[in-house]
Amino acid sequence: MRPKKEHKRLKPFYNPPYLLLKQAAAIMSYAWLTGWNKGAFLRWAGQLQNLFHAGAGAKQICCFGVNPHVVWEMTGRCNLKCIHCHAFGGEVSYDELSKEEGMALIDQIASSGIRTVVFTGGEPLMREDLFELIAYAKPKGFTVFIATNGTMITSEVAKVLRAFNAGVVIGLDGMNPEVHDAIRGVEGAYDAVIAGIENCIAERLYVHLNIVASTRNFDEIERIIDYGDTIGVYSYFIYNFVPCGRGEAIRDDALGNADFKALLDVIFKKQREVRAILIPVAAPEYWAYVLHHRGIHNRRLIRFLGHFIGGCLADKGMVYIKPNGDVWACPFLPVQVGNVRKESIEGIWGALNEFRCELGETECNGCEYVQVCGGCKARMMGDSNYTCPVNERA
């Protein structure tokens, strides 16, 4: 797999115009459903550069962000040993895609029309060619994010990211240093990540925080959201911890049904207050929970909202690429549906569609909220005790 010579450029955010209108409808629907404070929402929506960055090519707001987007786990190397890591980050992964293969992958993604690419790991900043790959992707019109633990973002690194206009996704699991360090597996991780976040804020980067919610840090979640609101974080992923990868060893840290409902309450409550958007991950039931809480049962309205709020992204628009090129539908669903070394993105997309049809055959099909939720496929497949917080019969 070699990079193509032609430099196909993606369509700008305003093309086609109807997509921009659909994105506006999605944002307004989200704000209405959650009861987002009008002033806080307008301050968020008024940051137009970040708004267009977040929504590049988006067809829906889903669990795990926008539909569609590509996440490339470009290395297994990491300077931390996070106890919940689904990727076993720490050492170099077997047979990682080379820089040339990475460029060819970027070409393929451009040909598919997907506009958002996330470089992750492991720790992407440990890959020496990260900035070369970002430099290759940007002229094609990609919206680029790096998903990092934040500890390696010096002021110099932040300046380079600013030059590329790259969004930064940073994991923060506690405002208590002992809690964060225990989860991240390295003493001093908290001080380093706070310094990294502050370096990004100083450069006026798009800053997004990831929070992995478990029994270890549940009491920290609101504090992290409040901290981010103070410094100007633009968006959050609130992960419901799914025990996979290294996280298999701490299954008892996963939230039980009562705690999971409490997590949905926290997201719903805080979204009404803060000037950032809060997106649930591995918790698409949030959308059903919000509609149920609002007393919305009209099937036509729910079907209409389903055009903008998509629920589980594993059966819609995520392409998750492992270091060796294997493709999964979700980082928490370790089922290979293709490999970018052997197949084109277009071919893999067809295999993903078949896999999505299989995932779609669930007990959720009888639920009134299936169009906006569909249940967490990873949790359904990995937990025989899966229960839905809205539809108790599921």
Could you provide a short overview of the structure?
Helices cover 38% and strands 15% of the residues. It is α/β, with parallel strands linked by helices and 394 residues long.
Structural class: alpha/beta
What's the helical proportion of residues? 25-40%
| Major sheet characteristics | 10 strands, mixed
Number of helices: 14
Across the major sheet, the strand order is: 9-8-7-6-5-4-3-11-12-13
Tell me the distance between the termini: 44 Å
Could you walk me through the main structural features you see in this protein, from its secondary elements to its overall organization?
The protein has 394 residues and is of the alpha/beta class. Helices cover 38% and strands 15% of the residues. It contains 14 helices and 13 strands. The strands form two sheets. A ten-stranded mixed sheet has the order 9-8-7-6-5-4-3-11-12-13. The chain has a three-stranded mixed sheet with strand order 2-1-10. Helix 4 (99-112) runs parallel beside helix 5. The chain is globular, with a radius of gyration of 20 Å.
Topology:
Elements: H1 17-34, H2 38-45, H3 48-54, E1 60-63, E2 65-67, E3 69-73, H4 99-112, E4 116-120, H5 130-137, E5 143-148, H6 155-164, E6 167-171, H7 177-184, H8 189-202, E7 207-213, H9 221-231, E8 235-240, H10 257-271, E9 277-281, H11 285-293, H12 299-305, E10 309-312, E11 318-321, E12 326-328, E13 338-339, H13 345-360, H14 377-382
Parallel strand pairs: 1-10, 3-4, 3-11, 4-5, 5-6, 6-7, 7-8, 8-9
Antiparallel strand pairs: 1-2, 11-12, 12-13
Helix pairs in contact: 4-5, 6-8
